[in-house]
């Protein structure tokens, strides 16, 4: 009898008790992600690079625009990395502080990568989800448009854009944004097609939830895993594209700079014994790309445990 | 309660057009008649069981009623509105009255939403004026009603068992207070012991809330337990429809007799003595159904007329679509002269 009473009491307590907090699939994925050492390492590196871009200019002793006349003309001898004269990364060919220049280049390159992949995420996700969910003729028209856009050699178009409309950072963002969402929309559409016939979508349709709400509430949240993975892998690709264009001399314009432009400058002066001009931008470029790829891999493993 | 049936279905047809890969654009697409001329009345508070083999159009019939697949014919709701003729927008009003419970409990719940959000979705769709607290209160009350702990409102579907997930599905169907609930094989994916729990829950809810149910299953014993009336489908056509007791005690259609004889009896002695009527051959392709009576290719009683004329069920309480209806013993006699 006593036992029954305690049982009943505990049951009553549980009923009246606080709401149990559920563990969402996101929480599960986060746990798996933080168990992945390479991915966490990548994430830490990324945070450091980000901190470098944000706070670097306040650490730098010189602005990125001032020329150091005491060094000018003797870059190879006096312009090397030094703590004593405040040029931590040395100076560039014109005597500008390379540390400040690298901070500036990091800001621009990260911005290009993140903006490019943000456009891809926003446009690509909704375009692909809409085409996939609505289906039929709409889907056909939308996806054939993507096919046609993909068939255009984008590097050629990008270079043409920059030549015709002048080299500006806005033009660069636009050009990269125009191409970045194409792949994303294809991936998202494919995923949507497989989601579309799940019973929970059918249940929402039977209840009378509107199409846009179904896309927003049921399809997009279930796509976000794939989108997140692809977006993190897209950022380095965007950075690479920008760097390539800047390397060709068509990217960002002086006095702005980017990793690609800095690497390009550094590679031109490599013969004069100023190796640091290439090494520092290249170092940041490489560790960032690696970090993004590691994080992307970690996200993929964390969000899609079935694949392992 | 009035005499007008809640739902009156007349001559319902569902046809899918199939286009094979590699067909020329001008090749006429083939038609697959998934449901072919089904009619029935559904009184308020009644439970109609629909049984048949896989691919006989059970689920399609249910989906046609709520415009999930395009259909022709009539489905008169409460003697006034033809559901099949309504536009997408006009249908919206009736979706709160007709809800559905799905076959796969886990697949029918969005894995990214909490149980509370899932159950509240119909409420948010049809009663957007309700405040968050009111919605939560109703969801919790309903969770309690279907045998879930209300404090688990913030959990996710993957944290529940199959039976619990089906209870969530039932709660979602009931939250807007529907008149008709279509259960599309709600227990087929569950263990036998859980099946019984879920069916008892459905029966209890049906009785207490005065629900009308369309209960689809391929398991005759499950349907027997819950239904007032049972309809047997074969290749999209109604073979026999009668009150549950009459159908199980004295099936008139040879197909129903074959189906019933295949149901295992949970008693080894009686099971051994049971006469099983085997069905010859396979289910014909629904793309090219047999002429006349669709069942004739597998029927022991088939005669020349069966190939020519599709049998029409006579009016009455016990509808049989067969030229030679009768109890199972008559089947043997009918076979002898032929």
Explain this structure.
- The complex is a heterodimer of chains A (308) and B (338).
- Chain A is mainly α.
- Chain A contains twelve helices and no strands.
- Chain A has a single domain (34-64, 86-300), classed as MetI-like (MetI-like fold, Orthogonal Bundle), CATH 1.10.3720.10.
- Helices cover 74% and strands 0% of the residues of chain A.
- The longest helix of chain A has 37 residues, at 98-134.
- Chain A is flat.
- Chain B has two domains: 7-20 and 29-97 and 178-335, P-loop containing nucleotide triphosphate hydrolases (Rossmann fold, 3-Layer(aba) Sandwich), CATH 3.40.50; 105-177, no CATH class.
- Helix content of chain B is 33%, strand content 20%.
- Chain B contains twelve helices and eleven strands.
- In chain B, the strands form two sheets. In chain B, strands 6-7-8-3-9-10-11 form a seven-stranded mixed beta sheet, sandwiched between helices.
- In chain B, α6 links the parallel β7 (180-184) and β8 (212-217).
- Chain A binds chain B through residues 14-15, 17-26, 198-200, 202-209, 213, 217-218, 221-222, and chain B through 66, 68, 91-92, 95-96, 99-100, 102-104, 107-115, 121-122, 125-126, 149-156, 158-159, 169, 172.
Average residue pLDDT of chain B: 85
How do the helices and strands follow one another from N- to C-terminus of chain B? EEEHEEHEHHHEHEHEEHHHHEH
- Quaternary organisation of the protein chains: heterodimer
Average pLDDT level of chain A: 82
Estimate the strand proportion of chain A. Answer: under 5%
Helix percent band of chain B: 25-40%
Write the layout of secondary structure elements.
The complex is a heterodimer of chains A (308) and B (338).
Chain A: H1 2-16, H2 25-35, H3 37-59, H4 75-78, H5 98-134, H6 136-151, H7 154-164, H8 169-196, H9 199-207, H10 211-247, H11 259-268, H12 276-303
Helix pairs in contact in A: 2-12, 3-5, 3-12, 5-6, 5-8, 5-10, 5-11, 5-12, 6-8, 7-8, 8-10, 9-10, 10-11, 10-12, 11-12
Chain B: E1 7-18, E2 30-42, E3 47-51, H1 58-65, E4 72-77, E5 81-82, H2 88-95, E6 98-101, H3 115-126, H4 132-145, H5 162-174, E7 180-184, H6 192-209, E8 212-217, H7 220-226, E9 229-234, E10 237-243, H8 244-249, H9 254-261, H10 268-273, H11 304-308, E11 319-320, H12 328-335
Parallel strand pairs in B: 3-8, 3-9, 6-7, 7-8
Antiparallel strand pairs in B: 1-2, 1-4, 4-5, 9-10, 10-11
